[in-house]
Design goal:
By secondary structure, the protein is α+β, with helices and mostly antiparallel strands. Strands 1, 2, 4, 8, 9, 11 and 12 form a seven-stranded antiparallel beta sheet that branches. Strands 3, 5, 6, 7, 10 and 13 form a six-stranded mixed beta sheet that branches. The longest helix has about 30 residues.
């Protein structure tokens, strides 16, 4: 006997109802889980952290001692930066950094008629830091360690080049080996002297930031290398 249109088996209706209910529960569960995950997971902007810029920092100050007839007189006094030094002044330069690094210091004498610029290795040396260019964070370097820097009769502006690097600088390590106590740490090898000159010219174009306080000066440079010249003028 034919079944009238619209008429269905009650058992089939129950099965269909249960199937639809199960699908609704699964769909709702998936939706709820996705909502929870989106709310609990940090957004990409939160997860992304910007690393602070790498920089090198040096702080320096100068101690000045007056001499007369070869003997010190009056108390030494600290100086933050450069002045016009008198012939009777002897000085020491003090340097430190909050970071470990490799420090090289070269003295460039006043300009002369000669086309050749000569460099003297000031640090490190056999009498400074056990001949090691590596300094530790907070370590104070005193140049020179036991005596004083004395201005000679050649008037003008000398430069004390400070090179501070995160890593050892191969060309400067090689160049400083050319200096010796016999030459008073003057680099006599023409080729090695040119290496220092080229290095300083190549890396001193971008000047570090400089902040002078009452008794010391702090210089900072972005990156892993800092090159800075302290100018010592004497007449």
């Amino acid at each position: 006997m034919p079944v009238p249109v619209g008429d269905t088996d009650p058992a089939k209706r129950i099965v269909l109802f249960l199937a639809l209910s199960a699908m609704a529960i699964v769909t709702a569960s998936i939706f709820a889980f996705n909502v929870w995950r989106s709310r609990s997971s940090p957004t990409s902007s939160v997860m992304t952290s910007v690393a602070p810029p790498v920089e090198r920092t040096l702080t320096y100050w100068i101690t000045v001692q007056k001499f007369k007839d070869g003997k010190a007189y009056k108390d030494p006094f600290p100086l933050a930066g450069e002045i016009n030094f008198e012939a009777s002044y002897h000085i020491r330069v003090h340097i430190r950094s909050p970071e470990d690094g490799y420090l090289y210091i070269f003295n460039e004498g006043p300009a002369t008629a000669s086309a050749t610029t000569e460099y003297v290795v000031v640090f490190p040396s056999t009498t400074a830091n056990n001949n090691s260019s590596l300094i530790k964070a907070g370590q104070e370097v005193q140049i020179p360690e036991k005596t004083w820097l004395e201005f000679d009769q050649q008037q003008g502006v000398e430069k004390l080049w400070l090179v501070f690097s995160k890593d050892a600088v191969a060309e400067l390590e090689a160049a400083r080996q050319a200096a010796s106590p016999q030459s008073k740490n003057l680099i006599t090898d023409v080729g090695q002297n040119k290496v220092v000159e080229d290095f300083l010219a190549r890396n001193s174009g971008r000047k570090p930031e400089s902040e002078e306080g009452a008794s010391l000066t702090t210089v900072k440079a972005q990156g892993n290398l800092l090159v800075y010249a302290i100018k010592l003028e004497h007449h």
